[in-house]
Amino acid sequence: MNQLYVGIDLGGTNIKLGCFDENMDILYKDNVPTNVGDGPDSIVDRIARAVEDMLAFHNLDTRLITALGIGSPGLIDAENGIVVTTANMGLKNFPLRDLLSQRLHCPVVLENDANIACWAERVAGAGAGCDNMLLLALGTGVGGGIVSDGELVHGWANKAGELGHIVVYPDGRRCGCGQNGCVEAYSSANSTAARALEQIQQGRDSTLEYLYQLNGKITAKDVFNHASKGDPLAIEVTDLTAKALAILCVGLFHFTGPEKIVFFGGMTKAGDLLLDPIKRHFDEQYWTIDNEKPELCLGMLGNDAGIIGSAALAQHCLNCGKFIAIAS
Amino acid sequence: MNQLYVGIDLGGTNIKLGCFDENMDILYKDNVPTNVGDGPDSIVDRIARAVEDMLAFHNLDTRLITALGIGSPGLIDAENGIVVTTANMGLKNFPLRDLLSQRLHCPVVLENDANIACWAERVAGAGAGCDNMLLLALGTGVGGGIVSDGELVHGWANKAGELGHIVVYPDGRRCGCGQNGCVEAYSSANSTAARALEQIQQGRDSTLEYLYQLNGKITAKDVFNHASKGDPLAIEVTDLTAKALAILCVGLFHFTGPEKIVFFGGMTKAGDLLLDPIKRHFDEQYWTIDNEKPELCLGMLGNDAGIIGSAALAQHCLNCGKFIAIAS
């Protein structure tokens, strides 16, 4: 084996890890619980030991690691390798990259998890080979990553990529961020479910009502399920989820000119039920003066995106010398 | 003199040109009529002769030119130095960069005029020193340029930077591009004037009405003048021009994270009358979870931006070897 790359997907519940060759073909993967309650230093230790154990199990040594990449939720300062804040892991201004590099004696790259997913799809998924692409991560919230001219975009003070908080309906629905009309307030899983529930509580007929009485809640998955069975309210709610995303995509395209916009995350399990109306609304909204338009498509990598993207980014950063901690 | 850079601002009516030292201090400037009716080859000849004449007048030779930059309206393929189309200069798939380089025997860079203005403000104006900034060109239409990580963004097939056609009001006013609700349909000079006129024709009282009876038209400048004198309709129209731009800026900021957003072009002669309500609406729309926000400001370079930006871009591209034709 010539080169060995390790990718880590750090989550609030689990740490996923994978081992890749220089072609980003996966060799091994594993996962361990994060145990965030044990504190920041313990997280470094758990990651390092998980890597050591995975390699040892295959009779390999950490000295063979060419480079390691790690994706983390929260606000990340990729240039300096710091987890600035996380919503639920208790990390604050934490130099995760350098600590891991010192512990494992290998070059390490740290990046935001949405950027990692974007890089994964760009290297090995739906955006393979695209120097200009976007990823929209549709889950509880809406996040994103931007590749422009072959590089991830970070912006001033790592402010780039908050794609969920682009305003699509001025003076529209209140978003958790304090703005009105964000795409996240229409198209996240939470907002999709909330819009359905509001309608039911206002007395709209829907097959979702029985489910609500039964479970005391409605999820986006429920909405999509009932839409697929023809419930008019569920179809209407799904349509607005798709329309807000389509309006966003028109704007995103006119901004950085991506060749592909890749939809990623839990909500994309709805598949064509969600993608088809996004495409339809995009075509209805899109200008008439140019036939060329971006391809709107679903991500291909699912749960492995985190480990693939972080390993592939480690390889990229090692090659260009950017944003990487080289252990002494 | 160590180095000599020439910047050309190609317009439908005039060709402006300037001569700069390596610090981008201006040495000489000049302008000649474009005479577009004479055809594409004649444009190359007129540019080249204007450069030769300007230098000769100062006892200099074109062999002293270190590099030359040229900004052109229309769709530009900067990588290949081609004017793909122009609205009113009759150029189509025209290899302007290489023809000029062969004629003047110097390295030449060609770029879109909005990108040139953006680069000018980035090097020597309101965005000086910013690696992440945007320029919004407010004139008859709305255009823009993007600097991300210190480089101009072109996107896939030069699609980036159509900032005027980002949708701010879904299902809103019809734009000339065929979309509904583009920022250009609210905030360009034409749209600002059109919105005022529509209100008057619907019977709204305004001091602008007399002007319309007199001249048969209303301009954005008229709207701003009357707003400054307290006409309620003119104030209301100006406010929506500003609000649409503010909503755009919130989205632009969450996208590529610019440190500064620079307003440029004819409409910015309105100064604080336009900038103040943009800032106010931005603050009203902007999220509450982060105090850091981009600076919104007016461009500083006015009519000289075209020659400064093209000369400065020539210097930049010569240094990094990108998008430049090196004459044999």
Task: Write a concise synopsis of the structure shown.
2 copies of one chain form a homodimer. Chain A is an alpha/beta fold. The first copy, chain A, contains 10 helices and 13 strands.
Give a structural overview.
- Two copies of one chain form a homodimer.
- The mean pLDDT of chain A is 95.
- In chain A, helix 1 (40-57) packs parallel to helix 2 (96-104) and helix 3 (113-124) crosses helix 10 (305-320).
- In chain A, the strands form three sheets. Chain A has a five-stranded mixed β-sheet.
- Chain A has helices at 40-57, 96-104, 113-124, 184-187, 189-201, 208-215, 220-228, 232-256, 272-285, 305-320, and strands spanning 5-10, 14-20, 26-33, 67-72, 75-77, 82-85, 92-94, 108-112, 133-138, 142-148, 151-152, 260-264, 295-298.
- Chain A folds into two domains: 4-119 and 303-325, ATPase, nucleotide binding domain (Nucleotidyltransferase, domain 5), CATH 3.30.420.40; 130-299, ATPase, nucleotide binding domain (Nucleotidyltransferase, domain 5).
- By secondary structure, chain A is an alpha/beta fold.
- In chain A, strand 6 (82-85) and strand 7 form a beta hairpin.
- At the A-B interface, helix 8 of A face helix 8 of B.
Architecture of the largest domain in chain A in CATH?
2-Layer Sandwich
Number of helices of chain A: 10
Q: What sequence of helices (H) and strands (E) makes up the elements of chain A?
A: EEEHEEEEHEHEEEHHHHHEHEH
Provide mean pLDDT of chain A, rounded. 95
Q: Please outline the major beta sheet of chain A.
A: 5 strands, mixed
- For the biggest β-sheet of chain A, the strand order reads 3-2-1-4-8
* Radius of gyration of chain A, CA atoms, in whole angstroms: 21 Å
* Highest CATH level, the class of the largest domain in chain A: Alpha Beta
Q: What overall geometry of chain A do the principal axes of the alpha carbons give?
A: globular
Q: Provide the number of structural domains of chain A.
A: 2
Q: Regarding quaternary structure, how should these chains be classified?
A: homodimer
Largest interface: A-B, 49 and 49 residues
User: Quick one: how many beta strands of chain A?
Assistant: 13
Terminal CA distance of chain A reads 23 Å
- CATH fold name of the largest domain in chain A: Nucleotidyltransferase, domain 5
CATH superfamily of the largest domain in chain A: ATPase, nucleotide binding domain
Which percent range fits the helix content of chain A?
A: 25-40%
Q: Work out the strand percent of chain A.
A: 15-25%
